[in-house]
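HUMAN: Mind making up another protein with tokenized structure?

ASSISTANT:
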Amino acid sequence: MENVPHPARELALIDQELHRMETRRGQLLTRRSYLVTVLARPAAPPPATHATASTASPAAAPPSAQNVLLTLGGVLLTVAAIAFTLVSWGHLGIGGRSAVLTVITLAALAVPAVLLRRGLSSTAEAVAAFGLVLTVLDAYALHAVALSGVDGLRYTAVACAVLAALWGGYGALLGGLRGPLPAAVVTAQLPLLLWSVAGGWTLSTVAWALLATAVLDTAVALWPLPRRTANPARHPSRRAARGLVVAAAFTTAGVALSLAAWSSVDAGTPAAMAEPAVLLLTGAALGLFVARRAPEAAFGCAAGAGLALVVAVGGLLRTVVPAGWAVLGYLLCAVGLLALVRTRLPRRVRQGLGAAGGAVTAVSLPWALPSVVATLLGGATRVTEIWSGVPDGTRAALGVRLASSWQLTAPLVLATAAGTLFFAYRLLPRLAPDIVPVTDVRRSRTAALCGAGVLGWATVLVVPIVWDLPYAVALAVPLGLTAVALALAVRPRGPMGTAGALTALVVAPAGAASVAPLSLATRPATLTVLVTLSALFAAAAVALRSGPVQGRDGSEGPALGEPVRALLACFCVGLTTALVVAASAAAGLPVAGVAVAVLAVPAAVALLGARLREHPVAVPVEITGGAAGLLAAGLALGSLPVLALVLALGGVIAAGTAVRVERRRVAGYAATALFVAATWVRLGASGVSVPEAYTLPVTVAALAVGVVRRRRDPAASSWTAYGPGLAATLAPSLLAAWGDPHWARPLLLGLAALALTLAGARLRLRAPLVLGGAVLALVALHELAPYVVQVVGALPRWLPPALAGLLLLGVGATYEQRLRDARRVRRSLGRMR
């Protein structure tokens, strides 16, 4: 025997391992000596960390304590002053009152300056806030005592203006305070609004007051700061106040323009529209001015200005045109606004104007939506009036009535929106660079062009219902649109590329779904439309290009792939099924005959699948053919013999499909199920009510298959081989036996269950043993139940509970033994197959 490795090599390895063990042993001994030494030393007191804290606390305590004391003192002083002013006011004369007010207010406003110099900023903020509250109390006291005859709202407006000015100056003087300047900004928003309300307010007066406030806020926001106060470190409230001013300007201007827009909607004449229009144009001018002076807010201001321009000019047009043309007027104003995009305005301003025009365009589309929905879904009303005759025009064919304004303006609105999107497609390269990535620009352009295509398709689609064209035109228009869409889908070229093809694949089925029910008015129309649609989708599925899509610039886009071809093929199968149904009905066949005729579709699909084999289109098409088979079964529900025939023919088709290796499993199961269902339906049609007549053939066939499988695979479980077949008969027979008053069925079922139980125990097969035993127990329970009920009824009422209690006690006392028995039974069953 030869050593592996070589003895010399093995000896060297052993020596190395012993050396490492000696080294490790030395390290552990050294560490052990150190730990023994440490444990032998006396315990040292813990470090005196509290001493450090105690020595450090006096240095930190005075400032914090001082801040707390000063804050509490300021609060108490202010509360005392307020209480004295309100409670003891009547005990002083005019001079005393004035002196008290002056002293308290000046003291409260002067203390923060001292506190800031000593570095107590938080205390200064608190005292300053109380000082500002005292100024409000001073204004209230002045009105209550000296100016009680002045109108309350007017006095409040003036007081707010004065207080805003005083607080602003105070905050500018004491730059270390953060509260006065924001408080001044908030208070400054009230004077003009309160003054307009005091003078008998209307929407216009309130809007003018808010817009004037917005102008003042804008002036303050754009006013440059002095160099000596521009340092944020020395004046921390500057940035917060400026941000608050900007927010206030946007808010007041937005509310003012919203009120003006509401007034313009209510205006019925050009004269009534004049004031809202002037207000809107003023707001638009303010927005454009701010957009030119403040580049960081250019987009939002320009967008708001654009919306104000559209509402103003569109509102004037609305008062002079018919009611139905108002939306088109606003939309044309938005188109004119988009023309400003090509001017020399700053880029962000042009983008804001373009966004405003796009928003108006998007809002105008719902106006045309009823016409589009009526065209797409109105044909469904023909389902209840199939082949009733040629209708008198498109509207009668669709069975809908639209308002004249919608009928006249819907195509114009859709066409204008489509042109707007195409215009945006052409302008995006000039607007978007340096703002968004090039890839986003391409996606946006593609989306705009696809949207323009969809809107153009909708424009042509609604023309027949708008002009109430003849019925033939109502059929020809969606058919032509579907043909064009499918042509674009199968041969995508130009700038739209793959996205355009996918868009065409969306609108083509929509057009087909709208024209198919619309054609139900006459037999020729139905057959012609269905034949045309089937041919179009079949040709598209065959002609679809699988390679990359060529763009206008020669670039290649991603290929559409086989899923699109499968989708087209499925639509073709569905339309062919509808054509078979219509042709059969036109030939005068009854519903049962139509059901048999529909089976031609799954049969043809099965033949086509045999040719396609592993092609990706095969599976979706065969599933659609199966759905046609389900339709045939549904049509045959009214006649059981015909239903049995349909199921049997479906089983033949499935069995023919199962000849193919790749479909053998699924189609084989389907064929078996269809044949069994056909047999059951045929038995039911013949009046057979015994369940075993339905289940025993299935059980015999299933058990034969199980025996063959067990011979080929001895390791197969008995549940897989015999379980389904046995359950197919045992379960229905057990249900029938429980409801059978006679003794023959329970007796035969019990004998069969006993035989199965013995066979399962003898052959060590789990499925026959468990199923047979369970059925035998249930049959015995069914047979013994009446006697048990009689015995229980004869016993005293307390005896059954007592017996149940004793049983539970016994089981509990021998729980471990019962558990061991259960485990032994489980192991015995586990050893079976």
Remarks:
- The two ends are 47 Å apart (CA to CA).
- The chain has a mean pLDDT of 77.
